[in-house]
Amino acid sequence: MRQSFRFAVALLMMGFCVQTASAQAKKRPAAKKPVTTAKKPVATKVNNNFAILEFDEWINDTDPFEDEENIYFLGNDNPDKNTLRAVNKQTGDVRIVVPKKKRARPMICSAGSDGKNIYMRLEDKGIARFNGTDVNTSEIVLPQSEQFKGFLIRGNRGKNITCSPNGRYFILYGDTPLVYDLLEKRVVRTGVNNTAQATALTDDGLLISLGYLTILTAPKHDNPTIDFSSPKNRVGVKEVKASEIDNGAHGDFCSLWYDVPANMIYVAVGEQILKSPAQADLSFQEVYCLPGENKKFSKVAFNDQHVFAVTNNYEKHFYEWDNKDMTGTPKISKELETGINHKEKYAWGDPTPYKLSSVNRLFYDSMGNLWLQSGDGLFVIYNPDGIKGLTTLKGKWTKNELPKEED
What is the pTM of this model? Predict the structure, then answer.
């Protein structure tokens, strides 16, 4: 009897333990699985101070020029490459304004703009005001007559067309300047300088022509001649030699900027940058002089807020100022680091950020962006305050190619 009692108690105790263990097992919380959080993609930092635009063809000796909406680039005077491309100032989109010379049309030898109209020097035709659609139907404002044929033929490469601020005058220059009055519809100046590398025109038709060794001024002429040796072409001409103002550095002129609101011109010569009122009698005063020895300016670009200069000292190659009067200490650098990787065609191993050290041409657009041409069709666009407009180009390397075949 006692053994049966003990056996029953043992069974009860075993049942109690099993229930207790079961209850405890139910109450024990399940182990939590590790939670994996998806990583958010890291946004690529865009360097808004730089952009690179690469054209697939050589850009003509004609400087880039602009109107209210676009910046224009003229391809070279090879029939297969003689195109006019436009970069929209706001979007940065590139479009072809004049396609390759595949159909019958004159060669575009040079072009420029007064901000509204585009003028083109057309081979065997003269100078035309482009109608925006067709070179062949555009108005010829200065026909290639026998009198001025020497200025307009393709062989005499007038490299640029520049207009006066009021749009009344334009000048074709490169080898020898030719000034045309659109109101009076006549040539008002020729043959005063056969080495013009840069020019400016005032609203009253005063020509300021920068050679390599001289800078001269020439007012409108009642009856100009194409005879370069004629004393008639020297009437009213006033000239300043580089050696008279170059501080003994024996340097050449290399840059000219016309500050229209202030009616001042800025020039670079040797180690100096000088300015003068834009008038017949030029009177220069020094704005800046490079420190040290054996340094000279080779290219300088100006606008109302910045000055960018290239020197022949490759350790201190680039000078930058944040004001047009070049006050304060300039930023000096050996090269420009864009932070933009080379395109694939340059990739040997991993792409590396492109650094600019060689510059063929400088150009400020009206938004304050500096275009630096390096090589045939490569432009580095730079603005220390952040690139204005050109939204699709910022922080990237963009290549623009002409269509392989055209209709």
Answer: 0.85
